[in-house]
């Protein structure tokens, strides 16, 4: 069954020059999604894109899980005239994500605004966006929705589930919730449990949004642009590093050179001020504020040990080959945590991306990502 992509998703994807993804209804009123919170949600639609072909055994699938503000376009759809996907450089013949070999699936997460049901979707009864009435969702709920999509697509088992940041949180939950459905996992710059540092940053971002007079308790018609922009500006500081900022900006440059719709008043004196305001405005144009609140809360509640015992016991349950990649300059999900994760996983191995770009390096350092993932996939193939 194909459902329409909600208005916000349609506008935002079109603004970025992206086509409308496929959408499937995986839960409906007769069979609602039972959320971890105890609430139910229906209908639930999933926006997704696939690359390559599923083999007759249904076993050559790779699930790519996206980060906080990502979407289903991990790469440009074949033959489409649109901007590259967010992991475009990992795609192609001979690259780690080779669609001649694998059936690659990427879906927009529950609670987001790129076609999957979330706060900007229309409430089935009121016909208006859910807004603040959208229920709290967790990473496990996101994964259950992805599993329903895989069932719909006929995927029996994943050759690999992979993701960075929030994507990595989903991957860990995949290995724990549906161990029989995953043959290997790869996580990059992620967390087994959201740290107090990360929760603190998210809380400051949420308060920036909800303190904006244009937020209107979440029932805005136009985005609370200053609040959302400010949230992104703060997040962008945590996604990069002291060195990347200091190397990137020329203090003598005319900071106002780039023309854009600045959500804030006042003169911009330094290039970095202009850059951050621009990044804020870019997010206002493409991401819904209520979705930001919903997803950041889901990340804060993330804890793979919840209901499962201590961390060592929980990770010991993941028996499949597992790659854990750290980023040398990651301030948000530190490199040491990724090494620790690999040490605690029975078949874990660790690799490092050396970069000055901080947490976002998993969206930037494609040569290193290619090498690390290529090697892991080769090992998996030899072991098969
Ligand atoms: C807009 C999109 O399509 S994002 C795609 C969907 N999003 C995702 O998948 C989430 C993951 N992606 C991301 O978080 C980001 O896109 C990243 C990390 C991959 C890269 O971020 P980017 O913003 O593209 O890169 P970067 O930090 O180098 O900033 C470059 C932008 O800042 C602008 N910029 C640079 N310096 C300045 C300045 N002093 N003043 C104003 N603008 C500036 C550049 O002109 C460029 O603008 P553009 O995006 O319109 O081309
Ligand atoms: N830059 C990423 C978040 C970092 O994981 C995003 O906007 O999705």
From TrEMBL:
E.C. no: 2.3.1.31
Subunit structure: Homodimer.
Pathway(s) annotated for this protein in UniProt: Amino-acid biosynthesis; L-methionine biosynthesis via de novo pathway; O-acetyl-L-homoserine from L-homoserine: step 1/1
Family matches, as HAMAP family: MetX_acyltransf
Entry's Gene Ontology BP terms: homoserine metabolic process; methionine biosynthetic process
Amino-acid biosynthesis listed as a keyword: yes
Active-site residues per Swiss-Prot or TrEMBL entry: 165, 330, 359
GO cellular component, one term: cytoplasm
Protein name per its UniProtKB record: Homoserine O-acetyltransferase
Catalysed reactions, as listed in the record: L-homoserine + acetyl-CoA = O-acetyl-L-homoserine + CoA
Domain AB hydrolase-1: 60-353
Keywords: Acyltransferase, Amino-acid biosynthesis, Cytoplasm, Methionine biosynthesis, Transferase
Domain of life assignment: Bacteria
UniProt-annotated binding residues for substrate: 232, 360
Purpose of the protein: Transfers an acetyl group from acetyl-CoA to L-homoserine, forming acetyl-L-homoserine.
MF terms in GO: homoserine O-acetyltransferase activity
EC supergroup of this enzyme: transferase
Gene that encodes the chain: metX
Family affiliation: Belongs to the AB hydrolase superfamily. MetX family.
Localization: Cytoplasm
InterPro entries, per the entry: AB_hydrolase_1, AB_hydrolase_fold, HAT_MetX-like
Principal localisation: cytoplasm
């Amino acid at each position: 069954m194909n459902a329409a992509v909600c208005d916000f998703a349609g506008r935002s994807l079109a603004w970025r020059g992206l086509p409308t993804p496929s959408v499937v209804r995986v839960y409906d009123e007769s069979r609602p999604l039972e959320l971890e919170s105890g609430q139910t949600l229906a209908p639930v639609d999933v926006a997704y894109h696939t690359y390559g072909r599923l083999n007759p055994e249904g076993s050559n699938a790779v699930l790519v899980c996206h980060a906080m503000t990502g979407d289903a376009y991990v790469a440009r759809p074949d033959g489409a005239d649109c901007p590259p996907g967010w992991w475009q450089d990992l795609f192609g013949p001979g690259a780690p994500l080779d669609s001649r070999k694998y059936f690659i699936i990427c879906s927009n997460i529950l609670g987001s605004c790129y076609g999957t049901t979330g706060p900007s979707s229309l409430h089935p009864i009121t016909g208006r966006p859910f807004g603040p009435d959208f229920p709290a969702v967790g990473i496990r709920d996101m994964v259950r929705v992805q599993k329903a999509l895989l069932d719909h697509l006929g995927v029996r088992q994943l050759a690999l589930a992979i993701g960075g940041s929030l994507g990595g949180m989903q991957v860990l939950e995949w290995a724990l919730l549906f161990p029989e459905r995953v043959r290997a996992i790869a996580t990059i710059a992620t967390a087994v449990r959201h740290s107090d540092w990360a929760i603190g940053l998210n809380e400051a971002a949420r308060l920036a949004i909800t303190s904006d007079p244009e937020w209107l308790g979440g029932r805005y018609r136009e985005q609370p642009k200053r609040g959302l922009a400010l949230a992104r500006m703060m997040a962008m500081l945590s996604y990069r590093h002291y060195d990347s900022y200091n190397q990137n900006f020329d203090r003598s440059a005319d900071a106002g050179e780039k023309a854009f719709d600045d959500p804030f008043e006042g003169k911009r004196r330094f290039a970095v001020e202009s850059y951050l305001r621009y990044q804020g405005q870019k997010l206002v144009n493409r991401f819904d504020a209520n979705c930001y609140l919903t997803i950041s809360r889901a990340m804060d509640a993330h804890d793979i040990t919840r209901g499962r015992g201590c961390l060592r016991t929980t990770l010991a349950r993941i028996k499949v080959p597992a790659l854990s990649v750290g980023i040398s300059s990651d301030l948000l999900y530190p490199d040491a945590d990724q090494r620790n994760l690999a040490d605690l996983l029975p078949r874990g191995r660790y690799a490092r991306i050396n970069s000055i770009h901080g947490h976002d390096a998993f969206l930037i350092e494609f040569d290193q990502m290619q090498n690390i993932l290529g090697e892991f996939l080769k090992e998996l193939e030899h072991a098969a």
